[in-house]
Amino acid sequence: MNRKLLVIDDEQTIRLSLQEGLSDLGYQVETARDGKSGLAGAKKKKPHAVMLDLRLPDINGLEMIDRLREIDPTVEILMMTAYGDIPTAVSAIRKGAWDYIHKPFDLDEVKAILQHIFSSLKMKRKIYLMEQNLKNEQEKLIGNHPSMIEVCEKINVLAQNDEVTVLIRGETGTGKELVASAIHHGSPRKEAPLLRINCAAIPAQLIESELFGHEKNAFTGAGERKKGLLEIADGGTVFLDEIGEIPMDLQTKLLRVLEEHKFKRIGGLEDIEVDLRIIAATNKNLEKAIEDNQFREDLYYRLNVVPVDLPALRQRGSDILLLADYFVAFYNQKFNKNVQALSDAVKEKFLSYEWKGNIRELRNVLERMMILKPEKDEVLTLDELPPEIRKEAVSREPEMIAVDEVGLTIPPAFSLEDYLGSLEMKYIQKALKECGDNHTKAGEMLGISRFALKRKLEKHEKEQ
Questions:
Q1: Fewest beta carbons less than 10 Å away: which of 89, 108, 212, 234?
Q2: What is the average pLDDT score of the chain?
Q3: What single string gives the DSSP state of each residue in 313-371?
Q4: Do 151 and 144 form a contact (C-beta atoms < 8 A)?
Q5: What is the pLDDT, as a whole number, of residue 137?
Q6: Mind listing the pLDDT tens digit for each residue in 36-70?
Q7: How many C-alpha atoms does 340 have within 13 Å on its Cβ side?
Q8: CA-to-CA distance for 89 and 394, rounded, in angstroms?
């Protein structure tokens, strides 16, 4: 977070000394000599905190608090006072100022108070983001496909068992983060934080510090102790997205967190105990990563206590249209449009398109279509459909295998049901062999969900 600071004081020496000293500490410092220029600076620069002289030549300091808060209700204000102004300074705190310091003051005192202010602002920002994420949970899991009904059933069970580690698997854009949110917000931990960490988005050299924190002087640049995200999430849930991207040397440390709920900060000697639930997600083939020595097998089994497999959007049939209707209603409100339906031609294209980006791609396509749609039009047509979908959408009907009737015989005691069952198992075994026994990929090859494949295998075993 950029630490922007505004100093408002009519004494030039104070403005210059604070600007020079605090800039050296990494703050972005702007100054103003009176209330009027200070308010203008607050509107333009949008500082996170303001150091405000109680006595200004044009506007009373107490009045300045109200006017600064009108500009930004979240700004923190540190009053600067002479000793004789203590009663007024106390009144300033009652109006919402963070604290007050006496003139003259030394830079170390200012530094300590500002560290507290910006630590508080950082935490408030996290809380705000969590609250926003909670509001965004209105984007619920939508779908009537059997595979999604099974996913929802698992979510309900996992929400009530908040100690169980979960591994969510699925292609990019299938809604893994949404599943993690649903599990957390339905659990006893719902009042505690849900921290989302994208392991692929954090540079390898920083991820250990971000997850586990560090002690002061643990490495070059570690000027103070820092809590890691696992520590901040104590009592809540940590969602580790793209878990397959965690470096091998950190996987051992993460395994200890899962098994003992303990870890050490970088440079730390004492164990830190945490009570949290881990939900991990990946779009990688972790079994293949284990074979390639890129992922620990013991960590995989510890994460994969209860797997949740999300189907690709192209496998969900008419759910595509249910999701499309949801996004149309969402963007109607956002863009003040009045779209009531998709045309039959658009529905046909949506159902035949591959949706390699899954729900995320569907959402982006509909956002683009809704933006371009005239406000009075009530139906989305091919005119708004992106050209790549218009060109690449193909029929979903499978190619029929030609049967030559010449030489076709029906033997005595023939059972069509048994014959088809045997033929079905041959194709299933062939697909499993070609996919390295990966049920998700084998299901995709056969045009069925992983869950349907599982049911067919179980049925075959019972009949043996």
A1: 108
A2: 85
A3: GGGSTTHHHHHHHHHHHHHHHHHT----EE-HHHHHHHHHS--TTHHHHHHHHHHHHHH
A4: no
A5: 46
A6: 999 999 988 888 899 999 889 999 888 999 899 88
A7: 3
A8: 72
Phi, psi of 262 (to 5 degrees): -140, 155
Residues 6+ apart with CB under 8 A from 456: 424, 425, 428, 448
Average pLDDT, stretch 85-103? 83
What distance in Å separates the CA atoms of residue 56 and residue 381, rounded to the nearest whole number?
63
CA 440 distance to own-chain centroid: 24
What would the DSSP string read from start to end of 120-177? HHHHHHHHHHHHHHHHGGGS-----SHHHHHHHHHHHHHHH-TT--EEEE--TTS-HH
User: What pLDDT digit, counting tens, does each position of 293-313 carry?
Assistant: 999 999 999 999 889 999 999
The structure tokens listed for 126 are: 């996290």
What pLDDT, in 10s, does the model give residues 452-464? Answer: 888 888 887 777 6
pLDDT in tens, 409-450: 677 777 777 778 888 888 888 888 877 788 877 887 887 877
User: In a 10 Å sphere around its CB, with 0-12 CB exposed, 13-18 middle and 19+ buried, how is residue 306 labelled?
Assistant: middle
> Where do the domains of the chain lie, and which CATH numbers do they carry?
4-130 (3.40.50.2300), 139-309 (3.40.50.300), 323-392 (1.10.8.60), 416-463 (1.10.10.60)
d(CA 272, CA 211): 13
CA 291 to chain centre: 29
Residue 177 to residue 306: CA distance in whole angstroms: 16
Q: Which residues, at least 6 apart from 131, have a Cβ–Cβ distance to it below 8 Å?
A: none
Q: What percent of the chain has pLDDT over 90?
A: 42
Q: First and final CA of the chain: distance in angstroms? A: 63
